[in-house]
Please model this.
Amino acid sequence: MTQHNRPSRRVIVLRRLLVAAGAIIVTVALVWGLLVMLTPTPASVEEAAPTATATPKPTATPTPTSTPTPTPFDKTAHSIDNPTSVWVVADKLRPLQPLDFYPPDLVTADVPYAANATMRAEAAKALERMFEVAESEGSGGMMVQNAFRSYDTQVWVYAGHVERLGQARADIGSARPGHSEHQTGLSADIMPSNGQCAVTECFADTSQGVWLAENAWRFGFHLRYPQGKTDVTGYAFEPWHYRYVGVALSTELHLQGILTLEEFFGLPPAPSYR
Model:
């Protein structure tokens, strides 16, 4: 009978330790594997993280800008009755008061003229400036045919028209004494310096007439007797007759496109004398 040698006690203890260590290693490996599986990767974290939304800044409500209200033109700034006013309106229904009014500040404008270039000081200065600019802008040479006429002179001028044309035709082309704008010292009859189309309707088609029609308002002058307004002014078309009213009024007439002082100031038409 063969007798087997039993392992020593020391060997048995080592074997047990090895088995225990192996078990521990296996357990640790399993736990590690589970942790790896359960822990999200950085990419997953980024995907899972909610996207931050920027909080919009409140938009400031713009303060409404008020449109300035245009200041209405003051039609009462100057008298239309006082013969010394640059706005005085003289027509067949509005004689000057007094009838023989004589302007207090007449001077001779420094411009070429035929009969005279006598006007009130303010109007004369504006006329000089207008002639100077007109020449620089290529209007062609201009001169004044006639400006101021006194009451006595108008008596003679009007009587001559009546003698040549008869009363009815004279009243369309010449004012009766006391009703003439020339007596105010604010009007001038303008013509080309070569004398062509002087005091006739063809002046409207000359380079001087065209320039004045387009630009006289810049200097305070107004075409007093425009075409097609005889039923309002009482006079035939006079493209040579310019009346000084001041830059403020001439500009307002130009901007509004109003052709006569009667219409601008709301006065009755004056086609004939009372």
Notes: The CA atoms of residues 69 and 112 lie 45 Å apart. Residues 9-38 form one domain.
